[in-house]
Structures are given as C-alpha cells and as structure tokens.
Write a structure and sequence with these properties.
Number of strands: 0
Structural class: mainly alpha
Largest sheet: none
Number of domains: 2
Length: 261
C-alpha cells in the first residue's frame, strides 16, 4: 500500500508540475516574450530553429496529434516514470557496501556472539542485511538450516527488488501500441476526409498524415525513455543480486569458522 501511494504521489507531482508550467507559460504576456526574445542568429535549447518556444511547439504537436490519442500515451509515460523513479530510490537505498558490512558482522559475531550480529543486521538497511538476519536467526538449528533459510529468503528479496518492473514493461509495450493505433485511426479519418471532399487534395492528405503520424512519434519517444530506465533498473538489480549471493556464501563461511571456536 505504501509503495502504491508513493507511485501515485510521484505521478501526481509530475502531472501537476506539467500543468503548472503550461499554465504559467500560457499566462505570460506576449509582449514580454517578444521583448526578451533572443536574436534570430542565436541558438537556444528552449527554442527551435524558427524561434518558437519549445513548450509552445510541444503543445502544438500535442494538439495536432489529437488529445484523445496523445493523452493515453502521455499517461503511460508519466506512470512509467513514476514507477521508475520509485524503483531507483528504493534500489539506491538498498545498496550498501557489502565488504564493510560483512567485516562488521564478523567482528560483532566474534565480540558479542550471534545476538550482537543480529542487532547489527537489524539496524542496517538493504536486502543483504535482511538475509543475514534471517540466517543468524536460525543459527541454533545448525549451519545447514542457515543455508536453506538464506537461499529461501534470498528469493523473497529478489522478488521485492523486481517489484513494479512488470508494470514498467507494460507501459513500454503499451506506448507504441497506442501510438500505432492512433495512426491507423488517423489514416482512416484522413481517407474519409478525402472521400467526403471528392478530391485528392495534397492539403487534405498532408494534414491527415501529419495528425496520424504524430501519435506514433509520441508513442515511440515514450517507449524509448521508459526503456532506458528499465535497462538501468535491470542492471542495478543484477548487481544487487550478485552482491546478495556473494554475501550469503560469506555468511556461511563466517558461521562455519565461528562453530569451530
């Protein structure tokens, strides 16, 4: 429930931020824009080659593509970014220096016993600390039970790390699909306009094709952005899983040495 609330909060902030920027820019006087406009020879990231403000150009393309088809693509992008941001924050908080942590666990185990090591794991964030705590909690049942517990709880932690990625992959697939669907519908409407006009006018054809293809462009851009975040999250999860596996082996070795004392 907390995760869902966090995702909805991030999505809401992204939506409100976008609307606030558009409204603020639309309310700005045109005279002020003309007064502070840069010379035509200067290049600005916020303007295109013709000197049109970037936000105004994007707004025009959004309206030309059709609000009914561009809005679902935009929602996919916003929700996908909200999930990606939530996962990035979660994974970064779950990342710890495993070498230092293992050294601290071994030191606490040698000085204060299993309870001291469990207390250290309890006060440390991340999946590695959670796995260590579950393994140490079963220490009285033998090292073999500790190994089984570590393997089982490692699978649970891996599932938590991958939580939300299925929704992100859905938005990646859905964005271009909605764009293509908007293009097909736009093409049908363009041919209907040609049939109604009874003339193969270049103006009618060009206008209909532009409106149809803009949805495809928006869908592909949304999918590309989300795919970059998806691949980054996968690489982050892979590094965390590798750290979990190495640390689990280290825990078994530490407990084996501790038993021999």
């Amino acid at each position: 429930m907390k995760k869902l609330f966090a995702i909805l909060s991030v999505a809401g902030m992204l939506c409100l931020g976008s609307v606030s920027v558009v409204l603020a820019q639309d309310e700005a006087p045109q005279a002020t824009t003309e007064a502070v406009a840069a010379p035509a020879a200067d290049f600005s990231v916020e303007t295109d080659v013709e000197g049109t403000p970037m936000h105004q150009a994007l707004k025009t393309q959004y309206l030309d593509g059709g609000v009914g088809w561009m809005t679902p693509v935009l929602l996919c992008l916003i929700l996908g970014l909200a999930i990606a941001i939530e996962r990035i924050i979660y994974l970064n908080l779950a990342t710890t220096n495993t070498k230092k942590f293992i050294a601290k666990v071994e030191e606490a185990l040698n000085e204060g016993g299993v309870e001291a090591a469990k207390e250290l794991c309890r006060n440390t964030r991340g999946p590695v600390a959670s796995i260590f705590y579950q393994g140490l909690d079963r220490y009285d049942e033998g090292v073999d039970m500790v190994e089984k517990t570590v393997v089982s709880y490692g699978s649970v932690q891996m599932a938590q790390l991958e939580s939300g990625l299925s929704w992100l992959s859905l938005f990646i697939a859905l964005s271009p699909s909605l764009g293509f669907l908007g293009t097909v519908v736009g093409m049908v409407m363009a041919f209907d306009a040609i049939a109604a006009a009874g003339d193969m006018s270049p103006t009618i054809v060009a206008g209909g094709m532009k409106t149809a293809l803009l949805t495809t462009v928006a869908g592909l851009i949304s999918a590309i952005i989300l795919q970059i975040f998806y691949n980054y999250l996968l690489s982050k999860i892979e590094s965390l899983v590798l750290a979990m596996e190495d640390s689990s082996i280290s825990l078994i070795d530490i407990l084996t040495k501790y038993n021999k004392k």
